[in-house]
Amino acid sequence: MEFTSYTSTVDTSVLKVIFGFISAYLMIFLVIGAFVTICWWKIFKKAGKKGWESIVPIYNMYIIMQITNNPIWIMILALVVPGFGMLAYTILVAMNMAKAFGKDTGFAFLIFFVPIIALPILAFGKDTYRFPSPIINQ
């Protein structure tokens, strides 16, 4: 009985291209993530909160509820019912975040659909924070 050894060769140029794409994607992801973090930090500072509170998971949601004057149960709903709850949380935060900085409903849509554009406008713009009236009664 004779055993035949099969070897496969992988073209290293293909691996280099794949690794290059993955590296580029990761780098872009990290840069955008850092930029969004800086924006949230500045928004928290404008609202009279500490900047570091924007980077603590779950706690930052609690602070956003305070900034936007939304009831805490919306945050709990978002954590317990991930799909619908997170959608409701995001919509209410977008609406009240726009309201808190004197923006209209159109800007709330921008926050919801294209936050990479809306957050820098809030963070680096001249708009000042105004404590909004709640959309949902607590």
SSE diagram, text form:
Elements: H1 12-46, H2 59-68, H3 72-80, H4 82-100, H5 105-113, H6 115-124
Helix pairs in contact: 1-6, 2-4, 3-4, 4-5, 5-6
Strand content: under 5%
- Helical amount: 55-70%
Number of helical stretches of at least 4 residues: 6
| Low-confidence residue ranges | none
Q: What is the strand tally?
A: 0
Ends distance: 81 Å
- Quick check: average pLDDT? 89
What's the SSE pattern? HHHHHH
Class by helix and strand content?
mainly alpha
For the largest beta-sheet, the strand count, sense and barrel status come to: none
Rg, nearest Å: 22 Å
Give the tally of structural domains: 1
Instruction: Give the overall shape, derived from the CA principal axes.
Output: elongated
Can you tell me about this structure?
The protein starts with 11 loop residues before the first helix and ends in a 14-residue tail after the last helix. The chain has 138 residues and is mostly helical. Helices cover 67% and strands 0% of the residues. The longest helix has 35 residues, at 12-46. It has one domain. It is elongated, with a radius of gyration of 22 Å. The chain has helices spanning 12-46, 59-68, 72-80, 82-100, 105-113, 115-124. Helix 4 crosses helix 5. The mean pLDDT is 89.
Keywords, separated by commas or semicolons:
elongated; 138 residues; 6 helices; mainly alpha
